[in-house]
Amino acid sequence: MEALIKFKSIPDQLYEFLSNSIIEGRIEPGEKLVENELCYQFGISRSPVRECLRILELEGLVNINPRKGTFVKTLSKKDIEDIFPVRISLECLAARLAVPIIREKEIGVLNDLVTKMGEALKIKDIQEFLNLNFTFHSVFIKASNNQVLERTLKNLGKGLWLRIAFLYYQSPSGLFSSNEMHKMIVKAFEERNVIDAQRLIAEHIDHAKQEILKCME
């Protein structure tokens, strides 16, 4: 049986281009995204461009002003101070719920992700590391078996979180320590240790917060 090759549609390519460019800083904070220019560049009509921009807004990457246009969201210290305590509380709750019920299969997935993140770090593929890191957190969040919690974390904005994480992983200490913390988090899940899992996740996220605030200074 021949494998099916999935080709990305033009709107999907536009979304991928814009989200990655914003996350990695190639499109700078405050920069305006002009609909007409995007239509011309990608050879598509305004409708899919507007839909793409709405998704980026939901993900926390752009601000849409009906009168002035669409602008890349500028991160402030207040944004960091606001989002991180919420993230810590919700992910610690996810860990508390997940530890007693997480399956060996899911723990295996976490271990595989840690290995793949280590490989990405060796070749300094930050974008791949970011995606694997996001998946890592998503696995134990989903394992909590609480759809309200999962949905709430999702609504914090995948794009915004990836952008924040990209800032974190520009820090040398972020690169060297992050995956070691991931390993310890997996060990806590393996040992069904709720207290350690919550503590390590809180320390992991708070470390990212402190490093990002340093970068912003």
Could you give the topology of this structure?
Layout: H1 10-23, E1 32-33, H2 35-42, H3 46-58, E2 62-65, E3 69-72, H4 77-98, H5 104-122, H6 126-143, H7 147-155, H8 158-168, H9 172-190, H10 194-216
Antiparallel strand pairs: 1-3, 2-3
Helix pairs in contact: 1-3, 4-6, 4-7, 4-10, 5-6, 5-9, 6-8, 8-10, 9-10
Overall shape = elongated
CATH fold naming of the largest domain: Four Helix Bundle (Hemerythrin (Met), subunit A)
In what order do the strands lie side by side in the largest sheet? 1-3-2
Known CATH architecture of the largest domain: Up-down Bundle
| Strand count | 3
Query: Over all CA atoms, what is the radius of gyration?
Result: 19 Å
Low-pLDDT stretches: 1-5
Quaternary assembly: single chain
Helix content: over 70%
* Helix-strand string: HEHHEEHHHHHHH
The percent range for strand residues is under 5%
Q: Mind telling me the CATH superfamily name of the largest domain? A: GntR ligand-binding domain-like
Number of helices: 10
Account of the 3D structure:
This protein is mainly alpha-helical. 72% of the residues lie in helices and 5% in strands. The protein has a three-stranded antiparallel β-sheet. Strand 2 (62-65) and strand 3 form a beta hairpin. The chain is elongated, with a radius of gyration of 19 Å. The termini are far apart.
